[in-house]
Amino acid sequence: MAGMSVTVLCAGGRRHNVKVTPNTVILQIIEEASLKQGLNPDLYDLRHLRRVLDSSSSVRYSGLPNRCQLEMVEAAVARLPASVTVHIATESGIRLVHDFPSIVTLWDILVHHKEHSGVGEEFLPAVESGKEVVLVYAMRRISCPELAKVTLRTLGITSGKCLLRHSVQSMSPGCQAHVSSSLARRPGHHLHPAPEEGDMGEALVAPGTENPAAETDVTMEEVPGVAVPNTAVSLKGTEPSALASHSGGECAAPLDLTTSPGPQGSPQPPRVTKIGDRNAIVFSMADAPPTLTGEEDDAFFKLSAEEVRRLYKEQRKALIELQEAPLMTKNMREMGESSKVLSAMHLYPITHLRVHFPDEHVIQASFKPTDTVADVIAFLRPFLACPTADFSLSTRHPQRTLCPSISLVAADCVPNARLYYDGETMEPFYLSEDTLAKKSSYSGACCSLNNINTTKLRPLGVSGKGHTLSDLSEPASSRRKEEAVDPEPRPHTSARTTGTVPKVPRWFKMAK
């Protein structure tokens, strides 16, 4: 909103152009326009089209377009000076409440609470400490240089109550909220030329390193004769298979249930045994490759400088989008959620679930997005050692127990999800002996997903013709347009080649 301005039509018929920012309060626009006309700003309001604007609202939340025209009208009730009940919420959870006139500055409010409310010195630190007080009101950040100038009336608060969020932050030139110091570039280590024969891990070892198996940070752009992107990577001087290790934890992204890296030896043929409808398969996670179940060391979770910069940039972008996003009503939010649900049901007609039991056994089955959690529970009961036992299904990261009446698409279990069995049993195993007798291999469970015949979606996100999911969600009107420009000849359109005369109504006569 850089360079935003509004035009105010005053009572005398004169127009005034007022420059505003997203944090400008409507009351400030009234005062500036009234000052040029010599009017009392407490007796007037601003009207945009047929809507009278709230004088305490800001331009950010008033829904005003750039260069709009506002009309100054007489207020129904004059704004009389009154006291304001100010609530200050501190970081420690304490809320300070007191009444102040609307002309008092924010700095005077802080000084009053420091002297009379019994708060410590950290509530209003000295300048020599290198920290400053920051107050936040309606997404507006007010720091120390502005606290002595901004009054409650400047914020549009002339009566009633208000809430200010108080925090103490360190002074920094860039006002960075999450980074305390500038990020330094990680120095790269020079590498020896790669030998003709040898292991990959031995070739990429920095000079002066006694233990080749120790972890070494290298920069790929420093390898001579190799064109690779400028990315800092972490390699280990061990077997090449260790470079392809996967994390044993869970992530927020949808799970890829079809990838199963086989062992280094001769691969065993997958064994698949269906135990019922819904393409149900039972297998054990003990048969999974060690690369999927092994734990990563602490170095795997360390972030490089480039990753920290990227995360910080993403957080700033998300914060800017949140601040500039328009206000949405409850109906608009419900319509947005409904459209997301319908889009998920259209793109993913089948969802794949894996229910993990405490004894490392897993039941894999396919459901529809409209099925409820109660349908999944009823489907699992015949395979349990005690079908009448009470149990529930839950998710991890975040930990939440699924309500039986909720649908899978509403529970965010589409297109695939990993659920966990929560219940007790008196048997040695949670599943019955007949179910365990039909156990499949881990590789067979992964391969069975590719064999499921779906019309709109395959587990890998690719249809039989190689189209992606975005192509499947294309509306029918676009497909009809593509068919209309199809260069292939059609038999019913070649009337001239067959010599037939197209039929015309009787009243239609050709001109001579």
Automatic annotation (TrEMBL):
- Enumerate the spans annotated as UBX domain: 351-405
One Pfam family named in its UniProt record:
UBX
Biased composition regions of type Basic and acidic residues, renumbered to the chain: 477-491
- Region span, Disordered: 239-270, 463-504
- Cross-referenced InterPro entries: TUG-UBL1, Ubiquitin-like_domsf, UBX1_UBXN9, UBX_dom
A single cellular component GO annotation: cytoplasm
Q: Which SUPFAM superfamilies match?
A: Ubiquitin-like (SSF54236)
Q: TUG ubiquitin-like domain: which residues?
A: 10-72
Task: List this protein's GO terms for biological process.
Answer: glucose homeostasis; intracellular protein transport
PANTHER family in UniProt? TETHER CONTAINING UBX DOMAIN FOR GLUT4
- Protein's UniProt name: Tether containing UBX domain for GLUT4
